[in-house]
Amino acid sequence: MSNLEIDITKTEDFCKKINLDSKVLSKAQKDFLNEEGYLIIPPTDFIEKNLKFLNEISNELISSEGTKGGWEGKEQNENYGKGIPFEPGTNRLGNLIEKHPFFKKLLILPEVITAAKEVIKYDIKLSGFTLRNPLKNSGHQAYHIDGLPRKNKNDPFHGVLCAIFLDDSTSENGSTRIIPKSHKKLGYPDEYINPEQSQKNEIRANLKAGSMLILNINTWHAGSKNLNGEPRKSIFIQIKRRDEAQLLNYKKYLKKSTLQELSSPLKYLLAVRDNDPTQDEMSIGPGAEYRKKFGK
């Protein structure tokens, strides 16, 4: 292990290594995220500059991977390799860290890291890095959270999910539904509502391509049916508390050559260093499987 890796012992060290500008989000934005459970960030200069390239990369991967897309970490599943999509009715891509060098740049977007620090208030790590694109007449999801529920009001929040929209997101192509302030509720959404039904207080994240939607993972949210078949690709970056399980076990899953090529900050963020604890599972959740294993 290099001295550079040893120097990063906590998230504050990581932030210094990537020269994080702590003012990238205003106090008003942080307050909104804390109060409402979500934050919308208009296209940044960096995303706008690279949006066409991100679309080209993603479309090529969707075409080449086909029904094998998104199965990373679950290759032992009986359906893998049989022409069955990981999520029927969608294009999925998993383990973006190894799919193209450019994707790594998204993991240290200052808006994402700052939002994660604001919500989690604990050392952080990457949990998942994927892409989802609902196809025509598909994409509906029940209201859910992307991790464990809180049981007491003083319990900490577990993480954030950042969606980077590569296409315009509209009510016609399946924009995300959100229930503001729901992250303050204890327990799972189905303890309060019928998660399959629309809710009076829901909002739709109808956003311009290049926008980012950052969610507290305890905020109730759901995908919607793509009615017109237009693409609605989203890159998802999930960051969680450092003491929680990853959606994909990067330390076990990544190729040795990939591990060697990662910068010391990314090794910290992915928790792949020798001294980083290793979970047993190759892949976990975050849906019913995660709830069955960890939730009460």
How does this structure look, described?
This protein is of the alpha+beta class and 296 residues long. It has one domain: Jelly Rolls. Helices cover 26% and strands 15% of the residues. The chain contains nine helices and nine strands. The protein has helices spanning 3-7, 11-17, 27-36, 45-65, 110-120, 250-253, 256-261, 264-270, 288-294, and strands spanning 38-41, 90-93, 124-134, 159-165, 177-178, 203-204, 212-216, 221-222, 234-241. Strands 1-7-4-9-3-2 form a six-stranded antiparallel beta sheet. A three-stranded antiparallel beta sheet has the order 6-5-8, with no helix packed on it. The radius of gyration is 18 Å and the shape is globular. The model has no long low-confidence stretch (mean pLDDT 94).
In short:
The chain has 296 residues and is of the alpha+beta class.
Mean pLDDT score: 94
User: What structural class do you assign from the helix and strand content?
Assistant: alpha+beta
Strand order of the largest sheet: 1-7-4-9-3-2
Number of strand elements: 9
Largest sheet: 6 strands, antiparallel
Instruction: Please trace the helix and strand order, writing H or E for each element.
Output: HHHEHEHEEEEEEEHHHH
Residues in helices, as a percent range = 25-40%
CATH fold descriptor: Jelly Rolls
CATH architecture: Sandwich
